[in-house]
Design a protein that fits this description.
- By secondary structure, the chain is of the alpha/beta class.
- The protein has a single domain, classed as NAD(P)-binding Rossmann-like Domain (Rossmann fold, 3-Layer(aba) Sandwich).
Length: 267
């Protein structure tokens, strides 16, 4: 799907510089969609990844195309290794290049110490930890062939700095990804930067009423947690700032400084 947006103006006689390309996983809706739109508005061409939300993905693509040169949708099940390994080459085939990956897609299913199982842990680790690592691996190899540099942004969770016993497998998978940030930043430099972004309570869900979400969103030292715009702006900042790697930016109104005995959805 090619954008009809005009190319950026250039100096007389100069060829238009190619716009950078970012793959955003889980970009069909919710926070991934907000990130995709913010990056498109920031001049990035956006590859919109989705798993089952085909119609929502096409809507995101259409909105991105109104903001940037090109956008396209790509489906893949991040629990399947072959599907993950094939995703970046498909994006490269469409755009000719990829410069960054934002790993926003995540499996978030409840378990705890009593209901934990190997199967539930494996599902979370594959989608939330393994897939981002494979995409970083693939992006690093692609950038090496171009003699270029790029970045990966991994979406984490303030929960890692303010733990509670809920969503055990999810939390383990995000903790592993946070550790991988450090290891990948060391292993893949100077070609690839790796940065974490950890939101607080940002969007409501079927587990929270609007009134309950509003009350919980205020539970922070700043009197408000993160908004989708806050998080998307931080992702854009992390991609554009060439000096940041191997660290995590917490965007949560300070919620990680407070003690919560349960997950927000169960409070």
């Amino acid at each position: 799907m090619s954008s009809t947006a005009p190319a950026q103006p250039t100096a007389a006689g100069a060829a238009p510089s190619p716009a950078r390309v970012v793959l955003v996983t889980g970009a069909a809706k919710r926070l991934g969609r907000e990130i995709a739109l913010a990056l498109a508005a920031g001049g990035w061409q956006v590859a919109v990844h989705y798993r089952g939300s085909h119609d929502d993905a096409l809507k995101t693509v259409a909105q991105c195309q109104a903001l940037t040169r090109d956008s396209a949708a790509f489906d893949a099940d991040l629990n399947l290794e072959d599907a993950v390994r094939g995703l970046l080459p498909r994006v490269v085939a469409h755009f000719g290049r990829v410069d960054a990956v934002v790993n926003s897609a995540a499996l978030f299913e409840h378990d705890d110490a009593a209901s934990f199982s190997f199967a539930r842990m494996a599902q979370h680790l594959q989608a939330n930890t393994g897939a981002p690592i494979l995409l970083a691996q693939a992006l690093h190899a692609h950038l090496q062939t171009r003699g270029a540099q790029g970045a990966v942004v991994n979406m984490l969770d303030q929960k890692l700095w303010n733990q509670n016993p809920d969503f055990l497998s999810y939390t383990l998978s995000k903790a592993a990804l946070e550790a991988a940030n450090t290891m990948l930043a060391m292993a893949l430099a100077p070609v690839l930067r790796v940065v974490g972004v950890a939101p607080g309570l940002t969007l409501t869900s079927h587990m929270l009423s609007d009134d309950k979400f509003a009350a919980l969103h205020k539970l922070s030292p700043l009197g408000r947690s993160s908004t989708p715009a806050d998080v998307a702006a931080t992702v854009l900042f992390a991609l554009n700032n060439a000096s940041i790697t191997g660290t995590t930016l917490l965007v949560d109104g300070g919620q990680h400084l407070m003690r919560f005995e349960r997950d927000f959805s169960l409070m």
